[in-house]
Predict the 3D structure of the following.
Amino acid sequence: MNKKTIRDIDLKGKRVLIRVDFNVPLEGDKITDDTRIVAALPTLKAILAQKPKSIVLMSHLGRPKDGVPDPKYSMRPVAQALQKLLDHAVIFLEDPFAETSYTQAANASEGSVVLLENTRFFPGETKNDPELAKKFARYGDVFVNDAFGSAHRAHSSTEAVARLMPAVAGLLMEKELDYLATALEAPKRPLVAILGGAKVSDKIKVIEALLTKADKVLIGGGMANTFFKARGVEMGASLVEAEALETAKMLLGKAGDKLVLPVDGVIADDFKNEANTRLISTTENVPEGWRMLDIGPKTVAHFISILVDAKTIVWNGPMGVFEMSNFARGTESVAQVLAGLTPRGALTIIGGGDSAAAVQQAGLADMLTHISTGGGASLELLEGQALPGVVALNDK
């Protein structure tokens, strides 16, 4: 990574403005998964060890209407959770652009930690408004971007603010970029990519990019249905993207044996966990009213035969409807395989989003090399796109 990090800058006595990714799931005011807060702790502790004047944190949470405060997306519960996890007092500023808030932050004790209200409560955030960025910038002498999950967006709190002061990466951002860049630019081979999820259209560019870089690209999940349809197999009530059929045909035509599709699957007569199910070959037509909801055991075995020799594995997207236990076996099997290969020296990288959730659900998170905190950002990086929130940081 050619960007400066917090290791390259003296933060002693400085006001450090940090963009974090605290976009955590909430039920009421209870955080149901604090993974993203925990992931930011090494950066926060490393900065506190440099004895800054203050740390001021900003993040979005959820998708409130642009510029409209919504109490259910308030960062207040996050402030309370962070205080416990960091074991350090956290000042929460509900109205960060009031002069009293700027004064409170300025007068806070040395080494204080401040969290601002949801960045998306303020008009212009998602439009990368430079005037809003100036308001954020009043809190800092140095900007640190540690929000990999938002690095693919050019927002006021990720991109515009980085233009207003020295701007460097945090440790989480550095870690994310190092792992994903290593996987793509100088991988230990064989490099095998596993792609799943619902739609081919969401991952066309990723598939095209990986076909030029990976030794094999394994396809699962709902997106495989569109490839089967493109091969002339009737898919019943399965999710198929009619508008992506020509693209799927094109990819099949140019990929050769590099693109690996499931050889069997679990079909069901309803989109319910209790539905009737059976196994079929993926060369068979899916009966009317039935739908493909998971990969089958022969596919798992075929995928394992490819993965067992891999030195680098990148996985983005589940193999089936893993939220339902009867259609989670394919996803869980892949997770277990990767967990077994990691201690044998394979670099196993999970690209955030549903894949990360599935790995957590299976209790295997600690057995993999790296689980990305950013689904969208990791996908764009896999596509080979530049991330605005990274581009804006200072070069080494």
